[in-house]
Structure formats: C-alpha cells, structure tokens
Amino acid sequence: MALTSDIKITRYGSWDGHEYDAQPMGASVTVYRGSLATTNASGDIINANNSDNTSTCWGLIDHVGPNPGVIDGGPGITNSGSAGAIQVEIATGTFFLASSTGSDQLSQATVGKVVYVYNENTVAATGSGSRCVAGVHVAVDTTQPGGYAIRLGSNQSTGGH
Fold first, then answer.
1. Which residues contact 60 (CB under 8 A, 6 or more apart)?
2. Is the dihedral of CA 105, 108, 113, 114 positive or negative?
3. pTM of the model
4. What contacts 157, CB < 8 A, 6 or more positions away?
5. Which of 58, 36, 56, 11 is nearest to 158 (CA)?
6. Mean pLDDT by 10-residue block, N- to C-terminus, for the chain (161 residues)?
7. Which long-range contacts (CB under 8 A, 24 or more apart) does 40-46 make?
8. Distance between CA atoms of residues 80 and 89, nearest Å
9. pLDDT on residue 161
10. How many CB atoms lie within 10 A of CB 74?
11. Any idea where the domains of the chain sit in the sequence?
12. Distance between CA atoms of 74 and 66, rounded to whole angstroms?
C-alpha cells in the first residue's frame, strides 16, 4: 500500500553510525518522511514503490535538504520541478521497519541475511534479481514499531552494508 503521510522513524541502537546524506529527487516525485529512500539509475531519489533490482537503497527519507527557499512542510516532500531541483536528507544507519508476510516474512532465521525493498516502509526476505536490496536484517524486537531492525543501504558509501 502506498503511503499518503509521513511516518515516524524508529532507530535501532545508538546514534553512532547514523548520518545524513543529501540526495537529489527525481522529477515529479513525492516521498514521505520515514519512507525508504531509493534511487533510480540516474541517482535521483524515487518513491520506493517504484524501485526495482537496479535501484539503490540509501536509508530513510528524513527532511528536505539544503534547498534555499523550499519550505519543509508536510505531509510528504514533492519535487514538482526537474530532476535534482530539490534534495532530501537521508538518514542512514539501522532502523525498525515492517516485514512483508507469507514467504517474504522476516524472522529470527533471517537475521544476518540480505533483505529487499517491498514498498515504502516494508522489507521482504526474498527478491534477489527482482527487488532492490534494502540492507541486512540485524534483529527482531516486536516491542518496537515494525519489529525488524534493518541496517539500511545497498550503497557502501552510505555506511550501510
């Protein structure tokens, strides 16, 4: 299901390893704070619902980047201009996300394994060759929103693995 509003980011572990990285948004794209930040082949942030196995996962959308004159209102962040006209700040590190269900369900058995982007705020256990790598599943804690800690980043320059 596509997001229609921002969602709360829940970090796993200490602040260490959590950094921000500004990336340009694609043309005519809307993303929501707290959603997975994926880029297309041109390197522009796109909505994670439109990602595929050629996309790169950076982290989570946090806020509008260093864009003079751009109001960081809500909900969502929209680039109604050309690609790169707006940048967003991406929070990198490890965060709690939701798991897909059925054969894509995460569990204690998937800790330490690569997981894949399912949609804007959900990851899946399967998807090699068809979905964007989200990162590595590092813990299960059902007391936290989403319940599954994922070290995000399929791009090594983000600090993800």
1. 9, 34, 35, 36, 37, 90, 91, 95, 152
2. positive
3. 0.88
4. none
5. 58
6. 86 73 92 94 92 91 85 86 93 94 96 96 93 95 95 61 36
7. 42/83, 44/83, 44/84, 45/88, 45/90
8. 17
9. 36
10. 11
11. 20-91, 94-155
12. 17
Q: How far apart are CA 30 and CA 74, in angstroms?
A: 11
Q: Provide the total of helices (H) and of strands (E) in the chain, helices listed first.
A: 0, 12
Burial call 35-62: b when 16+ CB within 10 Å, e when fewer: bbbbbbeeebbbbbbebeeebbbbbbbb
Question: What number of other Cβ atoms are within 10 A of residue 131's Cβ?
Answer: 20
- Tokens coding 47: 């909505």
CA distances for 17 relative to 13, 32, 54, 151, angstroms: 9, 22, 25, 10
